[in-house]
Write a structure and sequence with these properties.
alpha+beta; 3-stranded antiparallel β-sheet; 5-stranded antiparallel β-sheet; globular; OB fold (Dihydrolipoamide Acetyltransferase, E2P); about 20% helix
Length: about 110
């Protein structure tokens, strides 16, 4: 079994491998998961989630944390996930994002799940 993300406000445990990306929306974060009928909204900060999430997750923008296992392609300013969702990559973080993604792939990650 993989790493879990415990969401205390919903008394829910999520398998981190099922998380596509996390999106910040005002004081809430929205967790987008594979095959979910509905996304999960919780009160939390992106910093709190980054502390809980394992390797393979990258904060590519102040509003997005992406699971690198689901990146299908990337270009200047965004990454397209295997689900078809698009997440933004901050201009200032693009070079660092590319390095982190390449390191992820070199260390046994795969570009799609």
């Amino acid at each position: 079994m993989g790493r879990k993300l415990f969401i205390r406000t919903k008394k829910l445990m999520l398998d981190q491998a099922d998380i596509l990306y996390v999106e910040s929306r005002a004081k809430k974060v929205e967790i987008h998961t594979m095959g979910a009928q509905q996304n999960i909204e919780i009160y939390a900060t992106m910093e709190e989630l980054m502390e809980q999430l394992g390797e393979g997750f990258y904060r590519c923008h102040r509003a997005y944390i992406v699971n690198m296992a689901y990146i299908a392609e990337y270009g200047e300013g965004s990454a397209i996930l295997t689900s078809g969702d698009k997440v933004y990559v901050a201009k200032k973080k693009f070079g660092e994002f590319v390095k982190a993604y390449k390191r992820y792939l070199e260390n046994g990650g795969v570009s799609s799940v």
